[in-house]
């Protein structure tokens, strides 16, 4: 049933746990219209999918979220992060709010955060001026890129593990963390790379403005100019295949290009993020007015 949230609210981001619990970050349309910052957090348990009035309250934050996700090390928490460095984490019982930048000697110089990702069970955040943060024990964030030049910024990051992390962003920059140092690689393009993922086939994929796909690993990268009439904004590796989405359509990679998926019946019409569940069995499809789960065969509307 649609409309529980989307009649008056919009989804900012959402994620699905290995237990099938859907956790979402939600904005209030009327507050957003008046430029009042606010994010609502809620969870829906698998047994309540058919009755979405059963959303559980996870708390609220008086700032706008840029993304939501889970981390499982050292404990299991749902988290949202704000563009100016605010972070809110909860395990459903113990909420904790903190500023990422507190204690950093770069606090007055660092720009906006742009993306978050679970890597190896830990939560990472990236943003402008080459900043990357890692959430550690006690809800404390550590700054990982003090040695990096801060000319440009990162839009996205991902990793095969905590000793092989890739971050991508403006001017086509791709940087790799090898567990000890950051190394810059030539991506072959200078367009803004808006999303990057480390895929199950051992390759790293990044999608850029103007229909650019970059793929590779380590120091070897190739670029592909996509023949698409739309911009792609999010990537996901799900059940052995590469997915992408624009703001209206979902695509699958056929080895040469992204082909739009034909979805019969009810389908998402507003798209922003593709997030694979923590157990890898479901794809969470998020748009401002649509929230779906996909098991590889069946599309199920959550709201």
Attribute tags:
303 residues, mainly beta, 4-stranded antiparallel sheet, 1 helix, single chain, 49% strand
Model description:
This protein has 303 residues and is an all-beta fold. Helix content is 2%, strand content 49%. The chain is built from 1 helix and 28 strands. It has one helix spanning 29-33, and strands at 9-16, 22-28, 39-44, 56-61, 65-71, 77-82, 86-90, 96-99, 113-119, 122-127, 131-135, 141-143, 154-161, 164-169, 174-177, 182-185, 193-198, 204-208, 212-217, 220-225, 234-238, 241-245, 250-253, 258-260, 273-276, 283-287, 290-294, 299-301. A 4-stranded antiparallel β-sheet has the order 1-2-3-4. Strands 5-6-7-8 form a 4-stranded antiparallel β-sheet, with no helix packed on it. The model has no long low-confidence stretch (mean pLDDT 90).
């Amino acid at each position: 049933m649609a409309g529980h949230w989307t009649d008056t609210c919009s989804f900012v981001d959402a994620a699905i746990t290995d237990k099938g619990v859907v956790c979402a970050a939600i904005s209030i349309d009327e507050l957003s219209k008046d430029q009042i910052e606010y994010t609502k957090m809620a969870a829906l348990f698998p047994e309540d999918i058919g009755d979405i009035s059963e959303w559980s309250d996870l708390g609220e934050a008086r700032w706008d979220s840029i993304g939501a996700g889970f981390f499982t090390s050292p404990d299991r928490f749902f988290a949202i992060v704000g563009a100016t460095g605010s972070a809110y984490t909860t395990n459903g019982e113990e909420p904790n709010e903190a500023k990422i930048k507190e204690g950093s000697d770069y606090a007055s110089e660092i720009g906006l955060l742009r993306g978050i990702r679970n890597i190896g069970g830990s939560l990472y955040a990236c943003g402008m001026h080459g900043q990357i943060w890692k959430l550690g024990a006690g809800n404390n964030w550590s700054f990982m890129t003090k040695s990096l030049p801060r000319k440009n910024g990162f839009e996205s990051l991902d990793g095969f593990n905590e000793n092989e992390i890739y971050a991508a962003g403006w001017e086509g920059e791709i940087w790799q963390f090898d567990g000890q140092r950051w190394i810059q690689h030539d991506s072959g393009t200078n367009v803004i790379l808006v999303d990057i993922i480390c895929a199950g086939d051992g390759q790293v994929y990044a999608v850029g403005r103007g229909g650019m796909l970059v793929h590779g690993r380590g120091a070897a990268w190739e670029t592909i100019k996509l023949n698409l009439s739309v911009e792609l904004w999010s990537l996901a590796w799900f059940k052995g295949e590469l997915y992408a989405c624009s703001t209206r359509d979902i695509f699958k990679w056929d080895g040469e290009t992204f082909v739009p998926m034909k979805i019969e019946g009810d389908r998402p019409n507003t798209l922003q993020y593709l997030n694979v569940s923590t157990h890898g069995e479901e794809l969470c499809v998020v748009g401002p007015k649509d929230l779906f789960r996909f098991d590889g065969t069946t599309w199920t509307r959550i709201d």
